[in-house]
Amino acid sequence: xxxxxxxxxxxxxxxxxxxxxxxxxxxxxxxxxxxxxxxxxxxxxxxxxxxxxxxxxxxxxxxxxxxxxxxxxxxxxxxxxxxxxxxxxxxxxxxxxxxxxxxxxxxx
Length: 108
What we know:
Number of strands: 4
Helix content: 25-40%
Low-confidence stretches: none
Structural class: mainly alpha
Strand content: 5-15%
CATH architecture: Orthogonal Bundle
Radius of gyration: 13 Å
Number of helices: 6
Number of domains: 1
Shape: globular
Distance between the termini: 11 Å
């Protein structure tokens, strides 16, 4: 991971690596990038990623809530994208979160 890129670009690089049908958290990405206290900045990056071909729908909060859903076009687009990948979402919460969670620290 190149250190000369800005933080948002580094976030996008990690997010692009999240496997189909898996999710990660803002905090996991921040920790992987060596900025453990910057989960909120990862969220801001996801909010600004729509034109960058980033699977932002795969990034959720630390307990599996779809906290970024309001930044997607349409009422339930984030949930629909996740469900199209086989991720089960009930009341804005990912089910079996531990099973579908992808940790870049462990898996990269």
